[in-house]
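Mods, move this if it's the wrong board.
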Amino acid sequence: MPRESNRARLIRKHGTPLNARLLRLYARVLHDDEDVEHDQLDDAILSRLANILSSRYVSPRIQEVCKPKFNWFIHEQSGRGFLRSFCMEIGSFHKLVELIQDHEVFACIPGKKKKASVAAHLLVFLKYIGTPGSDACVEQLGETFEVGNGVAFNCIERTTTALLALYRHAVSWPSPSEREELLL
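Not the wrong board. Structure tokens:
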């Protein structure tokens, strides 16, 4: 048996007395008895029932807006807590942000929704690569940073692209002459 919704219960609650009042109204009309007080009460009940019938929900829906926790991780978490959470010191983190912040993947596109900061992207990426096992899924990252799963996935993809672009400039193999110098 289906459950009765709050709205249906409220309609039934207002509808039953209204039917009885309508019967009394018909009797008053037949006997030419005018009662202003009863008429005002009937109008009030009718308007309330009309409001209930015209609305989809009994109470207005309030959408809870949740702000991401990126700023808390960057500014309010202790240095030791940051190191434990992201396997990187805060100073190194800021240097890495400076290196990748000008990459085209982080550029804002006119007409599109504004992207999260480069630091936020890097936080999600570091948490992703520093978390072992199945905790490194986008659902868990989304819960940690209070963002959607798609946002967490996009942060990982964009940061990976930006870091791979730095690879050629940051990582190199020594030439044969440099190898000899290193061995000496």
